């Protein structure tokens, strides 16, 4: 039987946070939403989640600071991270993510199916089963 995976989302835009809640809805996902880097990092340290979905552009503590803190902490450094951002110019960081087996970099707007596929890959478990002919909002991008 499949196990419930804990996902911490750190997203300061309420609309995007709500959309992530809809997109990731599943009995196999326990989604914990936080709205700033400080609270998100505290939740990650408390829960040791299976995955983190991280916005970059946030006030006070940005996503790169959160990411660096995760990787510097021996108790959570192996946590997979999906960076979800509007930034297109972080070439050095994107390259590092492209070479990482536990990280992914996606830009907003994002394709719902691609995000779900990446979540399943990084938690190493199928989450959303649908018949092959069923479409999840064809071409849906948020």
Describe what you observe in this structure.
It is a single chain. This protein has 142 residues and is of the alpha/beta class. The protein has a single domain (5-123), classed as Response regulator (Rossmann fold). It contains 5 helices and 5 strands, in the order βαβαβαβαβα.
Strand and helix layout:
Layout: E1 5-10, H1 14-23, E2 29-34, H2 37-47, E3 51-54, H3 63-72, E4 81-85, H4 91-98, E5 103-107, H5 112-123
Parallel strand pairs: 1-2, 1-3, 3-4, 4-5
Helix pairs in contact: 2-3
DSSP helical segment count: 5
CATH class: Alpha Beta
- How many strand segments? 5
Order of helices and strands: EHEHEHEHEH
Assign a percent range to the helix content.
25-40%
- What sort of overall outline do the alpha carbons produce when their principal axes are compared? globular
CATH architecture: 3-Layer(aba) Sandwich
Mean pLDDT: 87
For the largest beta sheet, what order do the strands appear in spatially?
A: 2-1-3-4-5
The gyration radius over C-alpha positions equals: 14 Å
Strand percentage lies at 15-25%
CATH level-four homologous superfamily name: Response regulator
Structural class determined from secondary elements: alpha/beta
Offer a few descriptive terms.
single chain; 142 residues; alpha/beta; Rossmann fold; five-stranded parallel beta sheet; 18% strand; globular
TL;DR?
By secondary structure, the protein is an alpha/beta fold. It contains 5 helices and 5 strands, in the order E-H-E-H-E-H-E-H-E-H.
């Amino acid at each position: 039987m499949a196990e419930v995976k804990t996902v911490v989302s750190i997203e300061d835009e309420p609309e995007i946070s709500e959309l992530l809640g809809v997109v990731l809805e599943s009995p196999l996902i326990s989604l914990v939403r936080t709205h700033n880097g400080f609270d998100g990092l505290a939740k990650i340290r408390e829960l040791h989640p299976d995955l983190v979905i991280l916005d970059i552009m946030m006030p006070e503590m940005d996503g790169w600071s959160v990411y660096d803190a995760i990787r510097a902490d021996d108790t959570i450094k192996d946590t997979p991270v999906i960076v979800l951002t509007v930034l297109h110019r972080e070439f050095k960081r994107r390259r590092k993510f492209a070479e990482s087996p536990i990280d992914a970099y996606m830009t907003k707007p994002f394709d719902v199916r691609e995000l779900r596929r990446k979540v399943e890959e990084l938690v190493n478990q199928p989450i959303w089963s649908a018949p092959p002919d069923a479409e999840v909002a064809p071409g849906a991008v948020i």
